[in-house]
Amino acid sequence: MTNLNRMPFWLRGAHSIRNQPMNPVNPRQFVDDQFPSEFRPLVATTLKTAYRTADLWIASEPAFQIPTVQWNRGRLVSWAVDFGVFKLVESGALPFDYSWEFFARPTGRYLAIRPSHSVVTISQVVDPTKQPRNVVFRANARVSNSPFFNLPEFEEEGRIDGLPHILLTHGHQSLSFSHLCIPDPKHQNGYRYRTKNLLEMPHEIKADGPPPEDTDTDFENLGLLKEDIAKWKKDHGG
What is the DSSP letter of 200? Predict the structure, then answer.
C-alpha cells in the first residue's frame, strides 16, 4: 500500500482523486500559467528602456563621471529595471500584485512580483544558464520549488513551504538576454526550466484557425497544484 504521508503534496492530492500516482506539474506549464506569453514582450521593452535610462543617467550626471560608477553601472541598471517593472504592475499592464520585501539581512528591499500562485523576483546574471549569487533570500525561495520535482532528497518534505519561485533574469553589463526561470532547489544545478530569450520573442501574431493542441499539458495536475498553493496562502495569511 502506498504511504501517502511520504508522498509529495502534489501526488497526495492526485492519489486521492485517481487512486494512482501522477507526474508532477511540468515547470514550463506552470510558468506559462503564471506569466502568460502575451505579457512577455512588455518585459523585453521595459528592460531595453531601463538599460538606456541607466546610460542616460551616467552620461548626464557629472557626479557619475567617475570610475566607481562605471564599474558599478549594474546598480543603476537594477534600479531602472525595478522602476520599469514596478510601473508595469502599478499601471495594470502586468495583471499581478507586488510587494517590497526585506532582504534576509534588513539592509534594503527587493521587488517581488506576485502572480496568482507564485512570486517573481528579478536578477542580473552574467551567465544565463547559471543561477545568480547564492544569497539567503534566493536560497530560501528556490527551496520552495522542491514540490515541483520528484527528487528523493525532498521526498520527506513533500509540502508547500512557500510560494513557487520564478526568477526573471537579464544580462549584466549589456542586455543580450532575458529569461523566466524555475531555479533548481540545488544552486549548482542551475534551472529546472528556462524560457527562450525574451528579447528575441516576437510580438504576438494571431494565427488563423484553432491553436495547436498541446499534448504535454496536464491541466488536472496544474489545477491540483494551484489548489494546494491557494490553501497554503490562506493558511499563512495570504
Answer: G
Cα separation, 192 vs 182, in Å, equals 6
Cα(177)–Cα(194) distance, rounded to whole angstroms?
Answer: 12
- CB contact set of 225 (below 8 Å; sequence gap of 6+): 10, 25, 30, 117, 147
Write out the three cell numbers for 218: 496536464
What confidence category does residue 205 fall into, taking pLDDT thresholds of 50, 70 and 90? Answer: very low
The Cα-based distances of 143 to 31, 51, 194 in angstroms read 17, 31, 17
| Distance separating alpha carbons of residues 208 and 223, to the nearest angstrom | 29
Mind listing the pLDDT tens digit for each residue in 132-169? 876 545 555 555 566 554 454 444 445 666 788 999 99
Query: How far is it, in rounded angstroms, from Cα 179 to Cα 125?
Result: 10
Place of cell 512557500: 162
Tell me the pTM: 0.75
Q: How far apart are CA 37 and CA 32, in angstroms?
A: 7
Check if the beta carbon of residue 143 is closer than 8 Å to that of residue 151: no
Report which of 186, 115, 156, 193 is spatially closest to residue 9, judged by C-alpha positions.
156
